[in-house]
Amino acid sequence: MAALVLSRLRPVWFTAWMVLLLAAMVTGCGGKEKAVKLPGDQVEMEFVWIEPGTFTMGSPATESGRFKDEGPQHRVRLTQGFWLAKYELTQAQWQAVMGSRPWSGQDYVQENPNHPATHISWTDTQLLLQRLNQAAGDKVYRLPTEAEWEYACRAGTTTAWSFGDGASPLFDYAWYDGNAQQKGQAYPHAVGTRSANPWGLFDMHGNVAEWCQDGGDPQYPATDQTDPVGPSNTAFRFVRGGGFNSSAQSTRSATRYDFPITDRGATLGARLLLTR
Fold it and tell me: Which residue segment(s) compose the domain that 145 sits in?
């Protein structure tokens, strides 16, 4: 896409057509949305359809702030589309399904139905998913794999963040250390209050780090992968996106951290995936 240069000498109609084409190339995989009522029919969860596709996973060695476990870069092909939650899992949604409030009385939390559900471990999310799948009568809910998460976060981009390589716009796209913790607001904020990525997903950068379904290796494979799924027989899982107390570099699309599956904290949350 970088090779397509719009010349000032082109006719106006040609320039407008090229701008629309470039926009379609970036936003073409997102767009369709649906809302699903959770058990009890009092609370909904909104999802965005993510088309199957191919992308480069990981970060280049030249990316500023890069960590070693983000490489080597490799091509990943996802053959199945999926519905990904438009927002991070909220306190209202968790409570509607689980009937509990694990964040209540904890530090670095504001109780609010539209704030992310936190102090939930990976193991806790599996209990939530089990209840949702029981109510649905099929195994349709899960967490995204690392590959699915990064594909959706990048939303057709190859830059450090879904909005570009420079961190300056991060204030508009994420709750992170620079506009939350350092401003005396050391807690996750209401979901959807920053700008969305090109596919209409909110808070993919910052607010809370999101559990992924699969485990992973500290180094990626160097070969192309199709529908990769990390090991399940491990006591660790990766979280993605960074949180309200993360540095800018820790909210990049490629950043990954692994945590024990029983860990809970103010920065740990989730985003659900619906297979159909």
Answer: 28-274
